[in-house]
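User: quick one, sequence for these tokens?
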């Protein structure tokens, strides 16, 4: 969905109810207009009140990545707001229909995913804030009788030599009447002038989180809403053959029981699974009634699918030929003439998002409109899904997003919205849809599983002359809008990833495993799998060549250069920046130092969505195949640092998430259903196994910022796997490292 309409960002502003509100629409309008020239189309980014208090309205949902704070820092820096007293709130989702009839954002793009919130808003928010500062300075100049170039701003006040400071709040009414100079273009603070960006700031809502304030979707209340719970069909694309609901209807407080049809198995998903919905006055009434339903399920077309059958299918596929998605040079000829050839296969399983907060959504479908409230990474997806199911105009759908109790890509999908909206529409009442942990693990858009067959060939001098990556697995783009089997590869193999551009003969091959499992974006999507494969393979190559793993990586990255990168995170991949984080992580870890028997270090580095991260893991072997990660040293380059505390928090979180995923996480399928649907069978890392010491070097960069939510996860598993081998342990080519039978 586009932002309204045109080429340049400008500031809209106005004065209403004692507050100056600013927004940053992309519009074809040629001049700013006062509030009274708008109806309700103004969506403020910041509200400055007469008492000098202010609220920043964050356009990106926060799921723990701290983006409500970092975006507020961008805005406050350029506007010179007092950050200590600045409040933050989610920006109300607001769209409009443009002159071309298409739906567009009224103000700024709204959503969070793919580590885009920071880079997407970098120029947009600073432009709006710098322009707002100009309006305030103009108002202050008139009041104080001092030229603008003799004024300065700081902590929500305007200062002039020999004069008392004037607060922003006292200037709001006059600022609302200002007109920008013809041809005005805002100027931004230089790096030396910044006082806020790059500092360490705690999350604005930290106190509310730890004191249990109602922030999350499950906290929300809605007048007249009943609780809805669904008995989901446990079988992939199965459906309800019959249901005996007499015992369920006998539960006090039950208001309705609704059968949900199976989504079209040949079409795109709305909600994920067929089922039977119970609508009741309370959670416990709905839960008790759901448990008393007597349902006969049709097992659907995938009742022979299992984890074992998926592995067998991938093994068989790798013996066939697939779709060549990139081919440079002649891989076969180069390999035939090579002095050294290395071939390995790596395996990664289906993985669940395992959010702390299970799926939930409030939906109120009426004849004249609908309201949906909940944890959404994509408010636009929630809007589109509601309109699709109800037939309402999207302008009649009120979407309100809350703080998310975890997202990791799971809430980019709007299946929870579809389910709640369908139930509300059928029941004729507002509903609060509530999932349990079992619902959440058994019905997810999982990270795809795959077997990766890797080939590398070297000449007599140890130069890499050929590389092949053969992917056989389930496609993330399965049943995705506007995707076909011919385009599935784009979500699972990023064709410009290393070593593209660094080897003359390169072949990437894609083979599709047939599966009924829903799949989707999972933190650092394909990077989390491919980094494990490539970075593990590099260490195995280093062993074959008798070369230090760090030196091999630096040598293969080659000369300092920016290579074309067409996937998300581009348009370029800098070998310089990746080499630098590898070297900085090695320096921080004292790479190469002598270590006792049974202890060693492993290294890995990866480019993810515009950011560069390298990790060195120190491990100690324990009894059997077990090991302990003693320390992780990491270097991160995400361009200009916004919130130093946020970068460190995301580094630490991604490192532990990457380790947790590698150690034990695996969705297991048997007979077409997920069989490990709670944490006693889906193994998350316990605190005792987390990394006790994490040291981080943040690169001091002047590049535009990238996001930070996903960068440290991809290199963690290979760094650990590589360390284990160097300590004398087994090579772990499959995740999880310690699988558990369910």
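Assistant:
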């Amino acid at each position: 969905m586009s932002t309204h309409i045109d080429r340049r960002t400008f500031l809209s502003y106005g004065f209403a109810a004692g507050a100056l509100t600013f927004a940053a629409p992309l519009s074809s309008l040629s001049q700013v207009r006062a509030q009274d020239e708008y109806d309700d189309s103004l969506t403020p980014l910041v509200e400055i009140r007469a008492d000098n208090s202010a609220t920043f309205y964050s356009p990106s949902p926060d799921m723990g990545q701290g983006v409500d704070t970092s975006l507020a820092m961008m805005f406050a820096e350029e506007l010179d707001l007092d950050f200590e007293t600045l409040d933050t709130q989610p920006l109300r989702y607001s769209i409009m229909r443009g002159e071309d009839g298409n739906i567009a954002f009224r103000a700024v793009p709204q959503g969070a995913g793919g580590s885009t919130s920071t880079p997407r808003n970098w120029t947009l928010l600073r432009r709006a804030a710098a322009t707002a500062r100009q309006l305030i300075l103009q108002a202050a100049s008139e009041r104080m009788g001092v030229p603008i170039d003799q004024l300065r701003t700081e902590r929500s006040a305007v200062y002039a030599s020999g004069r008392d400071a004037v607060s922003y709040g006292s200037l709001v009414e006059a600022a609302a009447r200002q007109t920008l100079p013809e041809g005005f273009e805002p100027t931004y603070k230089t790096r030396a002038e910044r006082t806020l960006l790059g500092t360490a700031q705690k999350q604005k809502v930290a106190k509310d989180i730890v004191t249990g304030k109602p922030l999350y979707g499950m906290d929300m209340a809605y007048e007249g809403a009943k609780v809805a719970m669904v008995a989901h069909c446990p079988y992939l694309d199965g459906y309800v053959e019959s249901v005996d609901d007499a015992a369920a209807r006998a539960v006090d407080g039950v208001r309705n029981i609704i059968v949900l049809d199976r989504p079209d198995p040949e079409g795109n998903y709305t909600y994920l699974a067929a089922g039977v919905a119970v609508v009741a006055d309370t959670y416990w009434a709905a839960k008790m009634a759901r448990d008393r339903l007597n349902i006969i399920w049709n097992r659907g077309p995938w009742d022979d699918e299992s984890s074992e059958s998926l592995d067998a299918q991938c093994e068989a596929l790798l013996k066939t030929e697939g779709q060549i998605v990139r081919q440079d040079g002649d891989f076969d000829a180069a390999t035939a003439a090579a002095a050294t050839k290395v071939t390995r296969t790596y395996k990664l399983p289906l993985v669940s998002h395992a959010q702390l907060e299970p799926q939930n959504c409030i939906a109120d479908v009426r004849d004249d409109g609908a309201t949906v409230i909940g944890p959404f990474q994509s408010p636009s997806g929630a809007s589109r899904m509601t309109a699709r199911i109800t037939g309402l105009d999207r302008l009649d759908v009120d979407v309100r997003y809350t703080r998310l109790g975890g997202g990791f890509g799971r809430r980019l999908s709007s299946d929870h919205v579809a389910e709640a909206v369908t139930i509300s529409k059928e029941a004729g009442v507002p509903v609060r849809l509530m999932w349990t942990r079992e619902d959440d693990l058994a019905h997810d858009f999982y990270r795809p599983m795959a077997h990766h067959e890797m080939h590398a060939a070297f000449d007599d001098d140890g130069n890499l002359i050929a590389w092949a990556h053969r992917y056989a697995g389930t496609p993330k783009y399965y049943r995705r809008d506007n995707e076909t089997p011919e385009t599935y590869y784009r979500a699972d193999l990023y064709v410009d990833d290393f070593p593209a551009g660094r080897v003359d003969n390169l072949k990437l091959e894609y083979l599709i495993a047939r599966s009924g499992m829903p799949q989707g974006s999972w933190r650092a999507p394909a990077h989390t799998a491919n980094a494990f494969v490539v970075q593990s393979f590099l260490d195995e190559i280093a062993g074959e060549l008798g070369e230090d793993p760090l030196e091999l990586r630096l040598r293969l990255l080659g000369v300092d250069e920016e290579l074309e990168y067409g996937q998300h995170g581009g348009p370029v991949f800098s070998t310089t920046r990746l080499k630098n984080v590898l070297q900085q992580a090695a320096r921080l870890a004292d790479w190469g130092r002598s270590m006792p028997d049974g202890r060693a270090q492993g290294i890995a580095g990866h480019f993810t969505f515009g950011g560069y991260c390298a990790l060195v893991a120190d491990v100690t072997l324990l009894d059997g195949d077990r090991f302990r990660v003693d320390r992780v040293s990491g270097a991160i380059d995400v361009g200009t640092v916004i919130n130093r505390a946020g970068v460190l928090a995301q580094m630490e979180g991604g490192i532990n998430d990457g380790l947790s995923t590698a150690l034990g996480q695996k969705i297991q399928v048997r007979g077409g259903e997920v069989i490990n649907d709670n944490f006693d069978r889906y193994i998350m890392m316990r605190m005792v196994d987390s990394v006790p010491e994490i040291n981080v070097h943040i690169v001091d960069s002047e590049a535009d910022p990238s996001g930070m939510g996903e960068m440290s996860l991809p290199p963690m598993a290979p760094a650990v796997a590589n360390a284990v081998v160097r300590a004398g342990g087994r090579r772990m080519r499959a995740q999880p490292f310690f699988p558990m039978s369910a």
